[in-house]
Amino acid sequence: MKRFFCVVFLTVFLFTSCTVTYESNTYFALDTFISTNLPSGTAVDIEGYIRSLEALISKTDKNSEISRINENVRCTVSHDVASLLSFALEISEKTNGAFDVTCGAVSSLWDFRSDTPRPPSHEDIKKNLQNVGYYGIITDGDTSVEKASNDVKIDLGGIGKGYIAEKCVDRLHENGVDSGFISLGGNIAVVGKKENGDGWNVALRDPFRQNETVGNIVMESGYLSVSGDYERYFEYEGEKYHHIIDPKTGYPAVNELASVAVLCDNGALADALSTALFVMGLDGAMQFYKDGIYTFEAVCITKNGDVYTTDGINEKFKLTSENFIMK
Length: 327
Ligand code: ADP
Ligand code: MG
Prior knowledge:
Elements: E1 2-3, E2 10-13, E3 22-29, E4 32-39, H1 46-57, H2 65-71, E5 74-76, H3 79-94, H4 104-107, H5 122-129, E6 137-139, E7 144-147, H6 160-174, E8 180-184, E9 187-192, E10 200-205, E11 213-219, E12 222-228, E13 232-236, E14 239-242, E15 257-264, H7 267-291, E16 297-302, E17 306-309, E18 317-319, E19 325-326
Parallel strand pairs: 17-19
Antiparallel strand pairs: 1-13, 2-10, 3-4, 4-8, 5-7, 6-7, 8-9, 9-12, 10-11, 11-18, 12-15, 13-14, 15-16, 16-17
Adenosine-5'-diphosphate binds next to α7.
């Protein structure tokens, strides 16, 4: 199984002119590599906080609240999980199911960890697709969750890291930290400008060439999430199968896109939208931007190396690779 971790996808260049010294930490959590760069002496246990949130929303931890939802038709969850689920359901509806938090019944059929991975059978996909659909979960605006059937399963893989990134930023602000960055796989959170007032230069990974970059985005705050077909995938009988599923078909979304980066001021939204835009394809993604349902900016990279940006990101994004063409 080939598996490239997102920690190498996004690189933040730190400038030495700052008088604040930053401390870097890297560890494995949330099924990916986490790296943080925070002012030295920051007395905030971000790693412990990330692990506590993971315990709440992990789909593989049998004791998590998400497992409770997946194993019961009716249950009660914490306010944090209830509001994340409500937001995930809202995004599922507004993206017309391109992002669908109830894709668990089909996403669980795809095993990207196996040493001998192979696609599930058409029959299994067809059968399980019946249980995919955001209308299959009802929340009461408080902490109760009810499912249309116990075969409806939720998957927060496309929104959880962005949500946790945002919770970490809130916690840092509460503790007086106003500069730094956090990278949770393909999700970057920028806490505030650098001490010298400059933004952070975030490099966007080349989807085709490992360890190379496409360009830079200057971020002064907010969240950047990247979804791509190179992140988690396997090849079987000459076909490539990646981990972003089209909830309408149950199969990996196949279109002209190789990766989508979404920039916005909400971490969960950035994460969910990068997944959704990838499923929508280039035209669908650009139309969704124009529809103005959510405020965000995006960089879409196609399989033939064309780079499309939304209107509001042009002054922040700079192409640095000769292997790509700005459209
Ligand atoms: P990553 O998790 O690598 O950062 P994404 O944010 O694009 O990448 O999320 C992909 C994950 O989200 C998958 O591993 C799966 O758990 C879940 N997922 C896949 N397709 C969808 C979809 N269309 N809607 C919601 N969640 C999805
Ligand atoms: Mg995502």
